[in-house]
Design goal:
The complex is a heterodimer of chains A (303) and B (273).
Chain A: H1 2-36, H2 56-65, H3 70-77, H4 79-112, H5 118-130, H6 133-144, H7 149-156, H8 170-195, H9 198-206, H10 211-222, H11 224-239, H12 243-248, H13 256-265, H14 270-302
Helix pairs in contact in A: 1-14, 3-14, 4-8, 4-11, 5-8, 6-8, 8-11, 9-10, 11-14, 13-14
Chain B: H1 6-29, H2 46-51, H3 55-88, H4 95-107, H5 110-123, H6 130-154, H7 158-166, H8 171-200, H9 203-208, H10 216-224, H11 230-272
Helix pairs in contact in B: 3-6, 3-8, 4-6, 6-8, 7-8, 8-11
The chains are: A mainly alpha (303), B mainly alpha (273).
Chain lengths: 303, 273
């Protein structure tokens, strides 16, 4: 009896989270795709009904006949959407690169720190990640405003005499993304560098490498796995970012997350927002799958 | 041990300055007498006093806390199960899909998760509000719990589990008597992580909410759009304080329990040897 109970329990360990994620994570994407193929109507919910399961197979076939690709045609006709996708990808790529440039020296410095203070440093990098994203973005508004703290400071020390216009430009978005996602870049690079065997760089230097060549030929290649993981952790969510472009960006800033949000909340056009989301997902599918492989590989190595 | 060079010290200090300065400034200006958030006019706690009279804000805070407590607890159970499934069952049908579904939400843009969950709730005819926000939060936070617990399970000495099984304990009993106590610190930090992620979430909550359920981040967001005010700084400071306190307590508890366990294990091995 106990044996049967145990067998059931071990099945449940897999089945319960599996079923939950299937229902709440995977199936919703099919619904998004389905609704992206329906027509906008003024009703609640504002789209033509999804096929009626009560109608059985014939009901489903009936529903399929009403599929329309109008929303996708609409997306290709309006240059706004195309520009929004392209500019999201560019902004995310530039910000990821900037995050890498800033994050790597921090991670490297942490990995070189005396062993006794490393846990504290690690804690200090993780801590901002626990405080609200919204709050951290909000904090930058007061700093970047024309009459804000950064301009006050720069004018006081005499670097500039006219306030810099940063808020509501793409620069503010770069700063916001770099700031919000920095821990995601630092942590994987740090863990790759920390695991590294220091005798390797010592050997390289003994064999005549300068410290800089030793870094580029030994240390950096060995930390590449961390760099890739960090870049994916920053790039993928940044493409669909909403809060940062909305609060720090200007009215001309086009980012697809913001477009989707407006399409959904202001225009109440659910089918078009679904089409926008479907294409965004298609764009991100490759980097996401790549990220999953990197994660799965890291796990099997940890085994 | 290589020495900590000046370059490394400077980059760490600059990096941490960049990470913390905005938050510190926000906290400082929440105590500003003036209504302007960029000009210092003396110390005052009046913005905090004002918060207590803002009923809709207090209501939103209460909704947020209930959602966070409930969703973090469910997410911890589901996330721990998912971690066990990933680590202990290396072969089962659909494992690749399963691990994909655990990792994908970690990077999925929130607008996609939010929209897709909303459309699911509409499709199954669920009334939107407190419960739909909670279900949505369970879904995206359980994956973070799974990753945290998984990394602990990977460094777990399986021989003690095998010993319990050899001595006749059922797998279920082994889990509660051996595995759970060992991974408890990770499960606990997973809970804290899920709790704070739920507390902070704006985008997914906004998509999945309905009339009558407004969370604190939604409230803050709608006020931020009208401009920066010291009152928002005050709410944010309280939230930061709560989270920082929680994380600090969690890390101290985790550290203590891990040290205790290490000591116990060493004592046990000493007794055997």
């Amino acid at each position: 009896m106990a044996r049967i109970a145990s067998a059931i329990a071990s099945r449940l360990v897999i089945i319960v989270p599996y079923a939950w994620l299937l229902f709440f994570f995977l199936i919703p994407f099919f619904i998004v795709f389905r609704i992206s193929l329906s027509q906008t109507v003024i009703a609640m919910p504002p789209y033509t009904p999804v096929f009626d399961l009560a109608g059985g197979l014939s009901g489903i076939l009936e529903g399929m006949r009403e599929f329309s690709v109008d929303n996708y045609v609409w997306l290709t006709e309006d240059v706004l959407y195309f520009n929004a996708y392209v500019s999201s990808l560019i902004i995310a790529a530039v910000s990821t690169f900037l995050t890498f440039l800033i994050g790597y020296p921090i991670a490297y410095g942490m990995a070189q720190a005396p062993r006794s203070i490393r846990p504290t440093l690690l804690m200090l990098v993780i801590l901002p990640f626990w405080t609200s994203f919204l709050i951290r973005v909000y904090a930058w508004i007061a700093i970047l405003k024309p009459e804000g703290l950064l301009n006050q400071f720069l004018i006081t020390i005499g670097v500039i005499d006219q306030p810099l216009i940063i808020l509501n430009t793409n620069w503010a978005i770069y700063i916001g993304i770099v700031y919000s996602y920095l821990p995601f870049m630092v942590l994987p690079i740090y863990s790759a560098l920390e695991k590294m065997d220091h005798t390797l760089t010592e050997a390289a230097q003994d064999l005549g490498c300068t410290p800089i060549t030793a870094f580029w030929r030994v240390t950096f290649p060995l930390s590449l796995a961390g760099v890739v993981a960090g870049c994916l952790l920053v790039f993928i969510p940044a493409v669909g970012e909403f809060v940062i472009p909305d609060l720090l960006g200007g009215s001309e800033t086009l980012m697809i997350g913001k477009t989707l949000w407006n399409e959904f909340n202001s225009n109440r056009d659910w089918p078009v927002s679904s089409a926008v989301a479907t294409i965004l997902l298609l764009i991100l599918v490759l980097p996401i799958v790549y990220f999953q492989n990197v994660q799965a590989k890291a796990d099997s190595e940890g085994r | 041990m290589a020495k900590w060079s000046r370059f490394n010290i400077v980059s760490v200090i600059l990096g941490f300055g960049f990470l913390y300065l905005p938050i510190v400034l926000l906290v400082i200006f929440s105590f500003n007498e003036s209504k302007l958030v960029t000009v210092w006019a003396g110390f005052s706690t009046r913005w905090y006093a004002q918060l207590w009279h803002n009923q809709s804000l207090l209501d939103a805070a209460w909704v947020t806390i209930r959602v966070a407590l409930l969703s973090a607890t469910c997410a911890t159970v589901l996330g721990t199960l998912a971690a066990l499934a990933l680590v202990r069952y290396t072969r089962f049908r659909g494992r690749v899909l399963f691990s994909g579904m655990v990792y994908a939400p970690l990077v999925m843009p929130e607008v996609i998760t939010g929209l897709s969950l909303l459309l699911l709730f509409v499709a199954v005819g669920l009334d939107r509000g407190f419960w739909t926000i909670t279900l949505a939060h369970i879904t995206f936070t359980m994956c973070f719990v799974a990753v945290v617990v998984q990394s602990r399970l990977l460094s777990f000495d399986q021989s003690i589990e095998e010993a319990a099984l050899d001595l006749g304990a059922t797998p279920v009993r082994t889990f509660f008597a051996i595995t759970l106590p060992v991974i408890a610190p990770a499960v606990f930090s997973g809970w804290v992580l899920a709790f704070t992620l739920s507390l902070d979430d704006l985008v997914i909550s906004s998509f999945t909410t309905g009339p009558g359920a407004t969370t604190l981040p939604m409230k803050i967001y709608s006020q931020v759009r009208l401009g920066v005010t010291p009152e928002i700084n005050a709410i944010c400071t309280i939230l930061i304080g709560v989270v920082a306190f929680g994380v600090l307590v969690a890390s101290i508890v985790t550290k203590r329990r891990e040290l205790q366990r290490e000591r116990d294990e060493r004592a046990a091995f000493a007794a055997i040897g």
